[in-house]
Here is the input.
Amino acid sequence: MAINSADFIVSKRQILFFLLMLSQVSKGHDEDVLTLQYTNENFSTEIKKKSHFVMFYAPWCGHCQRLGPTWEQLAEMSNEEDSNIRIAKVDCTTESTLCSEQDVTGYPTLKFYKIGETRGIKFRGTRDLPSLTSFINEQLGSSSMVEDVAPSPPEAVNGLLELTENTFEKHVSSGHHFVKFYAPWCGHCQKLAPTWDELANSLRNDDVVSISKIDCTQHRNVCGQFDIKGYPTLLWIEDGKKIDKYTGQRTHEELKAYVSMMLGKDADESSRKSENTDGVPHAILSLTADSFKHGIEKGFSFVKFFAPWCGHCKRLAPTWEELGKKFFANNNVNIVKVDCTLDVSKQLCNEQEVDGFPTLYLYRDGRKVSEYNGSRNLDDLYDFVINHLQKSHDEL
Here is the structure.
């Protein structure tokens, strides 16, 4: 039978289109490891067990793809066994009947289902993490907030202060502060709560530092000012200014050691690295596009370009913190991190040719000299920097 050439071209295009769609679906499944994927078979059963926030999407939808990392981050914070909320999604290209029943007419459609209910409440706000988490909190209601609730205005309870929008700015305007930004429904926050209480209690007689917390579902303006993108976020603040973000292990011993390190830096080495960004010494420098050029212009700077939602970045974070501690006493080495998801840093990351996370570049006197592609364990990272220092010394 003769085959018309036009028929052949159409068939070829259909095949290419099918392969493209298949690759998008596969990509989505690889990246979204924490979000629950529901189908027509299990949807009605699962949403009766707990409250749900569901994204109805199509793999080829650009808006859905852009929302994907944020939705995954939301799932990571929420899909804990002891959490009262589940983050899920439904692929409407394979579950068309279910999506039709739920009145899905565009992608992505985000709906909140209270426990036991089968009809959802549609989310109509901006699709950023603070707006999504605030919507969840509103739907769950104040009765669900049983964790980390303290009276306001703040009154120290065993050394721990609960801050609000009315008290935060004045409280942190002077001195040293270690602050937990949290959401009451967040499983990771609930796990950290007793440890944070223990930390505050162990430092309650220390007049140099205060341990505090603030509920971001109740005081969004403060959390927005500090660009809080996930819960819990632990910030070291001095004289009203963010100095560092804690990324280490959340044990009492590690947290207390971090406080000692930050206070030790201020007391014993207040002049060290005075040429860096804000004049305050750091184990790790957190730079943005505004401070990057000045922050790396002298000596060696080992820079981690990262995204907070990136799994590989999260695994590297505590090691990177340890690397910063190793080089803390070396005035010729800066260990740096740059969050490429921040609006003020996106262009910088593009200019530095960052095409994946994490990307590790070594700079010397402001000039990029090498990219690190080796094993991400502490010894290998340390040796990489030392070898370049020795090479520099031999050249002199």
DSSP finds 13 helices and 15 strands in the chain. The CA atoms of residues 125 and 131 lie 7 Å apart.
